[in-house]
Amino acid sequence: MTAPRGLGYWHNYEWSRGLTGYDESDTEIPVYEPRFDAPLNLFLCLALDDAARLAEAAGRPIQAAGYREVAATIRNRFHAMFWNPSKEIYDNYSGGPAANPYDSEVTQALAVVAGVCPADAAATLRRRIASDSNGLEKTTLSYSIYKFSALFDEPVGFASTAFRKIADDWGSMLYNRATSFWETIMGSRDFDNSGSTCHGWSAVPSYFYQAYVLGVKPLTPGFELFQVKPLLPGIDRASGTVPTPRGSISVRIARTGDSIECEVTHPSQTSCRKVLP
């Protein structure tokens, strides 16, 4: 999929340099020539996956198959179009004038999460984005969900890195007496002192502590069947409640040495599948 062209389109993918849609002088960059944007195609790929699952749940298998076919086409072509063998990363853009020369963490993370890269490339990219000194433009709060998801694909090696980053960034908000999630790590000081200090897209830890520490994820629509698969990266005790359409799921986990106790309370119309480390 080529990027929309002409005036009136703002190609903003996230707030790190290279993906904002602005140049160094804060001037919007219109696209007039055919250009392929890696984040746009990766987001489309993920959206098609979700659309296919929704169509299947709604009893529309033909529609689901159509979405999967388009997603497969993107996956088959993406690596050859965007992989930069000399840098061993994916470029942000292909064809036409690039927005600027910066390489981005979030593009690499999206490629891993969307499943467009070979296994060896995915392993390389996880190691790269897990490093603080990786030479890439850092992922901002709103899109850190993709960076963390990519790292959690290999939890033994990288789960602790992700949770340390969560503790550092969101912990700094708490130390600054925040009572809600900031739009960016700079809070109100960003965007010429107009940054939002109450922004839903930065509520990433709310999901990750439920999905990875407690390990609660739906296996069928509406959590009718769900799994509890805690990662517990350096955590001995955890407890919490996850709201679902069928009622709340409560989990309490305690680890003593090599022994793990996991207690789950859930609505009677749901079923739980435990997968303990």
Characterization of this structure:
This protein has helices spanning 38-57, 61-82, 105-114, 119-130, 144-152, 155-175, 190-193, 204-213, and strands at residues 36-37, 83-84, 89-90, 93-94, 216-218, 225-228, 237-244, 247-256, 259-265, 271-274. The strands form 4 sheets. It has a 3-stranded mixed beta sheet. A 3-stranded antiparallel beta sheet has the order 7-8-9, with no helix packed on it. The protein has 2 domains: 1-156, Glycosyltransferase (Alpha/alpha barrel); 214-277, Maltose phosphorylase, domain 3. With 277 residues, it is α+β, with helices and mostly antiparallel strands.
Write the topology of this structure:
Elements: E1 36-37, H1 38-57, H2 61-82, E2 83-84, E3 89-90, E4 93-94, H3 105-114, H4 119-130, H5 144-152, H6 155-175, H7 190-193, H8 204-213, E5 216-218, E6 225-228, E7 237-244, E8 247-256, E9 259-265, E10 271-274
Parallel strand pairs: 6-10
Antiparallel strand pairs: 1-4, 2-3, 5-6, 7-8, 8-9
